Structures are given as C-alpha cells and as structure tokens.
Amino acid sequence: MIDSSDDIPFFGDSEPVKRPSGLAARAMAARNQSAPAPDYLIGLNPEQRQAVVTTEGPLLVLAGAGTGKTRVLTTRIAHILATGLAFPSQILAVTFTNKAAREMKERVGMLVGGAVEGMPWLGTFHSIGVKLLRRHAELVGLRSDFTILDTDDVVRLIKQLIQAEGLDDKRWPARQFAQMIDGWKNKGMAPHEIPEGDARAFANGKGRELYEAYQNRLKTLNACDFGDLLCHPIRMLRANPDVLADYHRKFKYLLVDEYQDTNTAQYMWLRLLAQRPQSKEPGQRGGSVNVCCVGDDDQSIYGWRGAEVDNILRFDKDFPGATIIRLERNYRSTEHILGAAGHLIAHNEGRLGKTLFTEQSDPEHEKVQVHAAWDSEEEARAVGETIEQLQRPDANGRRHNLNDMAILVRASFQMREFEDRFVTMGLNYRVIGGPRFYERQEIRDAMAYFRAVCQPADDLAFERIVNVPKRGLGDATIRQLHDYARARDIPMIAAARDLVETEELKPKARKSLRDVVEGFTRWSAALENTPHTELAERILEESGYTEMWQNDKSAEAPGRLENLKELIRSMDFYESMRGFLEHVALVMDAEQNEDMDAVSIMTLHSAKGLEFETVFLPGWEEGLFPHQRSLDEGGRSGLEEERRLAYVGLTRAKKRAHLWFVSNRRIHGLWQSTIPSRFLDELPEAHVEVAEAEMSYGGYNRFGGGSSGFSAGRQNPYGASRFDNPEIFASTYETPGWKRAQANRTDATSRNWGSRSGHQVERVGYGESGPRGVRTIEGELVAKSTTDTPSAFSIGDRVFHMKFGNGNVAAIEGNKLTIDFDKAGQKRVLDGFVTPV
DNA sequence: CCGAGGATAATTTTT
DNA sequence: TTATCCTCGG
C-alpha cells in the first residue's frame, strides 16, 4: 500500500487517536458550555457562519466569486474537527486540482494547528480514487501496484490497437479515440454501456470493440488511465456492498469543492459514498447524508470536458431536504466590476441565481473600461502602454506591481502578440499554463526508464525507451519483441530477456538488446538497496540517456539536461522511486517562480480561482469570444458557457478591468475583419465606460482615413451594436434598436454559424447591400471553400483594403489574394475584404 | 537513421 | 501563418 498517511485505524475509528488541544480544545469547551463562539468563527459573515455550522444533512453552498468559499470550506472542516464530530480520517474532502487540495490542507492545518494529523482523505477525485483502488485493486482485476497512464501513453497504446485492427490510423486518429474513451469514462460508461451511435461512429463501426480491446490491454498492462481512477472505484463499490458499507461507516462527512465542475462519473462516485443507509450511529441523523457541496453554477466553464452543470442545479432534488446557502457578499471587487459581471451573467438562463454585492463602494472607483483597437498588434501595444502607465508612480506616489496585473485571453494563440510586445518593451511577464514540466520529452523519457524499472509489466514505458538513445533496435526488432510477448502473454522486458538467449535476432540487435536487458536487471536489483535519487542518476547515466543529450548540439539540449537534474533533485522529496512516480502521475504541475515582479499572461480557464488588482481582457470579438467553436458545437449552452467564462474573467479583477476588442485579427494567417463581442453589449451602461484615444498611438493612423481608423465603413452583420459607431463610442452610450439587433443576431447565428461542413459560408464585401449575410471569421471554413469558388478578381486588379489601403493583386488562389500594397507591402487576404478601385 | 518537405490542423485543460 | 506530424528518400 502506497499511502502511509492514513495511520489512523481504518475501520472502527471509535477511539480518539489524539485529543484535540489548543484551539480545538477551546472550541470543544465552547460547544459544551454554550460559551461565546470559538475564535475560528469570528470574522465570518452570517451566511458563511451558517455554512460552517450546518454540519448535519445535505448542504449546498452557492459561493459566488470572491465570497470566501475556501474559507468556509476550511473553517467547516476545522469546526467538525474542533467539535469532535469526526476525526480527520472520517472526513472525505474532494477537490478538482492538486493545487486546491494542497491549499485546503494548508489552511485547515493553520486553523486547527498541530492538534490533528493531516487529513488522509483530502485530495482530488483522482488521488482518492487511486487510494481506494490500491486497497481493493484485486476486486477490479488489477494488482495494487498498477501503473497510471497519462494521455500520451494512452494515445500511443490506442494507436497500436488501431493498427493491430488493421485500420488506417490516419483516418481514425488515436487522439480522437482517446478523447472519446475519456468522454465515455466521464460518464461512467463501460464498453457495453456506450450508445450504439457512439460505437458506430469510430473505426468503421468498431468503436465498442476497440474500447473493449483497450480495456483488456490495460488489464494486461496492470494499468489505469485517468478515467479508470473514477470508474473502477464506482464499479468496485457497486459490486461489493460490504466494502461500500465499510466506507459508509467510515466517512461521517463529505465535502466537495467546485461542485459545478463534477462530471457524471464523479457524481455517481459521490452519490455512492453519500447515500448511506439508515444509521443509528451518533453524529448522524438516521439516513441523512452529511454531504456539503460548494460551488458556483455561474463559474462552470468545463462543460467541454464532461462537467455537468446540471449536477449543481439539481442538488436539492438529488438530496431531498437539502439546505441551500448563498454566499453573495463579495470581498474582492469594486461595485462596478460586480455590476458589470452581474448584469452580463444575468443573460444566462438556467442558473440558480445569485447577485453579488459589495460594501466597497466609492465614487473614486474606476468603471469597467472598454477599449477598441484597430488590430491585435495595436491591442498589445496599448495594453503594454497602460501597464507602463500603471507602473509609474501616480499623483500620490503610488505605483502598481506587475504581479497585480494579468492579461486573460480566450485562446492561447492570443498570448504571442503580448509576449512579443513585452519582449520589445522589456516588460517582465510570465505565462501561466502552457506545456508543463512533466510533459517535456526528456522528463517523460527519464520517467519511462524509472517506470520500467519499478514496474516490469509496464510495456509502454519499456517500449518508449528501448531505443532511446538509439541502439539500433528498430521497428523490426520491436515488432518481434511485441509478438513474442503477446504470444506468451508476458511483459516485453521478459520477452527481451528470453529472446537474447535465442538465435532469432540479428547479431547487432541482439547485442544491444542484451545490454538493455542487463541494465534493467541491474537496476531492478538495486531498487531495494540503493537510495532512489542515486539509482535514478545511475539509470540515466548507464543507459546512455544523459550522454545522448550531452552529444546533442541543438539549442534545447542544455535546457533538457538542466531539467533532468531538476527532476532528480525533486525526487529527493519522496521516500522511494515508486512514491515519486505515483506523485508525478497524479500531480502534473510544477511551481512557478513567484519572486519576479511580472505581468501574468494566461487563458481565462486557468485564471479561475485567481484574483488581480488589474485585469486586461483582450479579444472580445465575435468568433473569438464567444468562440466560434463553442457556438457551433454547443449551441445555446455553448454560448452560455462562454458567457460564464466572461463572467469568470471579469470577476478576477479587484480594482480595474480593461476590456478590448479589435477590428481586425489574423486568424490562421489571414486577416479577418471582426465585430465586437455581443458580451460587450450585455454590459450595463452604469458600470462601464468607453475609453477613448488609445487608438491614435504612435501615429498609427491608418489608411481607412477616419480619425480613429476604427469602424469607418465597417458593417456589422448583426445590425447595429453600440460599439459600431464612433460618435456613440465617444460618450452617450445609447443602445438604439438593440432589441431588434439582438433578434437579428440570434437569427443569423442559427442560420449560418452552425455550418461546419463548409461551402455555405456567405461572405459580404464591403459596402455591399442587399440581404445581410454573416461574415464568418472561421478561417477553416473560409479556407476550405477556396478551391471551387473562383475569385472575382484577376491578377493586376487595383484594389482597396481596409487595413492595408490600395494595392495590386499579385496572385490568386481560390478566394485568397496575394496583394502588393502600396504602403503595407505584400499580404495575403481574403477577396471578401477588398474592393475594386 | 536522419533530414527534408509535404500534409494537416490550428479553444479551453485536469487528472 | 505557423507548428507539428509523418512519410519518404538518401
């Protein structure tokens, strides 16, 4: 068993292991003598306090952004412990991310002091799933030392299976099937449970068989994917009522963080554990479920990966008699930010409904600012300028730290422009998210070595490194190994051991393979009696892996070596190599250095849960935000999720929020004219102000001729938006005919934006009148429609383009024109965006 | 076994 | 446009 943390007797936690002392003791005393509230309740507002002390029965805490959600959760745990309602090991507390789990552990620790041991059952759904599985692995046909595969392994495995089926792995991409499996597992569905339609949709109708083959393969590999960490426990608990009953007895309190993000499997898992049969034990009313879910339906932004907002919306039906507490008092943002965010999110249907309020109201507070820029380059430049301005001391000598500012983008391609700009400006920035430490090639290779040593059955790991560094063990040899292993149902490494003793291999391959096998034999032997960091170093050394990078002349090689050193160093924190591998499988994040003062750049998704004084939200344009794909694939609910994303973005800001939209954005290399996001029009006038003048930066006055270069001659296919018109833009902020525009908009949306199959794209040239079409900004569609739509232009034509001015057509490919512009040089644009002169 | 060049696809991300 | 992946040729 891997976990040593659960040192409290597993079943029958009837004897206190440690007497709570200090704060906890005082709290207990307070409870017994109905004395004044214990310290930890002080400073909580009435709703928060109620959420903390309502320990019995189902409870849903609807915690709006910045309303002290984590505080409630941690205080609640502290309260349960302090009042002796349960021991740490009797509380099951689940979060989504390791970060959240870590934070919660820390904060509970601070509240309760050293009085109680760390909570063994506080963790992510997945880590708790692993814990359950390690205990009861045999009940689902695994050994307790099973391996956890990550996405990369899974894809490679599936690819093998697809090829083994004799299918074309181009036509049926493994990645896509991996996602399908993940989707099924998110719903808790085993191969025989998936809908017929789904099964038919892949691999010439062999989807189900393939899924089955995949599961079988995992079993032989003694491995789990992430989805299994949820699904196996469910199956195990269902099939073994006695085990389930043990856990029912064990867990007195259940807490779930971010409930709006739970998927169906997690929901089933939770219900299984929460639905305790009638119980006469003290501390629980007969049959009631002490389950407390905390979440915010307005911040549900992970529908695309299986989260079911419905879980939170249905809570009181799932748990009859549930108490629902709303936390609406916001401690983070100004009245303007809350006003803007609240008004925006009110456009969503199907929400439980909350209105955040604050007592921080001050005429000095800035309204939410909306800025327009000509294109994304100007957007980045202007944001950079604003940041510099904030950095300079103001009239009161106050300056702002870069750490207090963040740029939150919808899609990561937007980051680049900001990075470029900040590099030239010499402005410190850090990108949050992005490729992670443990996903780097060299780290994964090294890990594969370690895995293969610890886990001789881990064929995937073995296969990954058997020829890394190059040892002349090509495809042919690998296939041979593979076949031999499959035929005898043994791990590949065992097959290798056998094969080197035979004459079946070519002498060269045989020699190399023998070296590899001997290496693994040595390392396995050393596993028990060598310090694991030392062994790790030895493995990388003796296998020639380190050397491989030392000989590599590429620019990244030194960095990779550095990463390997870092990997070894970080192993020091773990007791054993196995412990380390387990950690890495589940915790894929690595900390960022917080020392430097720098602006953060990240996606809106990764910003959830964070807060900044000043937040920049660029790219509020139709097609980007709300994103085209969300609209195409998710329809109305897709739009609502985008709106929640906007809400999340806005509510990250404490003091200042700057929204931006541009008129032109380059998408897949082509310049596209864009229109302001509908979300901008959904903001309340009272809390929003349209910023001016930013546009004439550095004399970038454009060819359009208008003073701002913005919106002249542009047509909004939806009809009028208050952001279309420069005069309105200046001050008055009227929304004439907005209702009508809204109507046109939805109309147009369903008519045209739902087309993913190409060719129905209607483009509207500038100044064209007649029936209004929608100008798609979806590069894919436009690009695909090229081949059979000959352009109306011919080489040599004199044309005018909004961004680049006048020029001559130099080349034509379908509807893509290459134009030599007089001022801007050669560019490629869509013919819809130029007019003949 | 490596490198070049063509095809392909380009939201969001945790575990 | 750009990045990545994969195939093909040397």
UniProtKB/TrEMBL annotation:
ATP binds at A63, G64, A65, G66, T67, G68, K69, T70. GO terms for biological process: recombinational repair. Residues 42-334 form the UvrD-like helicase ATP-binding domain. GO terms for cellular component: cytosol; DNA helicase complex. Pfam families: UvrD-helicase, UvrD_C. The keyword DNA-binding applies. InterPro entries: DExx_box_DNA_helicase_dom_sf, DNA_helicase_UvrD-like_C, DNA_helicase_UvrD/REP, P-loop_NTPase, UvrD-like_ATP-bd. Residues 335-609 form the UvrD-like helicase C-terminal domain. Residues 743-758 have a biased composition (Polar residues). Its EC number is 5.6.2.4. It catalyses: Couples ATP hydrolysis with the unwinding of duplex DNA by translocating in the 3'-5' direction; ATP + H2O = ADP + phosphate + H(+). Residues 741-770 are annotated as: Disordered. One of its GO terms (molecular function) is 3'-5' DNA helicase activity. Keywords: ATP-binding, DNA-binding, Helicase, Hydrolase, Isomerase, Nucleotide-binding. Belongs to the helicase family. UvrD subfamily. PANTHER family: ATP-DEPENDENT DNA HELICASE SRS2 (PTHR11070:SF2), UVRD / RECB / PCRA DNA HELICASE FAMILY MEMBER (PTHR11070). Has both ATPase and helicase activities. Unwinds DNA duplexes with 3' to 5' polarity with respect to the bound strand and initiates unwinding most effectively when a single-stranded region is present. Involved in the post-incision events of nucleotide excision repair and methyl-directed mismatch repair. This is DNA 3'-5' helicase. It comes from Georhizobium profundi. The lineage of its organism: Bacteria, Pseudomonadati, Pseudomonadota, Alphaproteobacteria, Hyphomicrobiales.
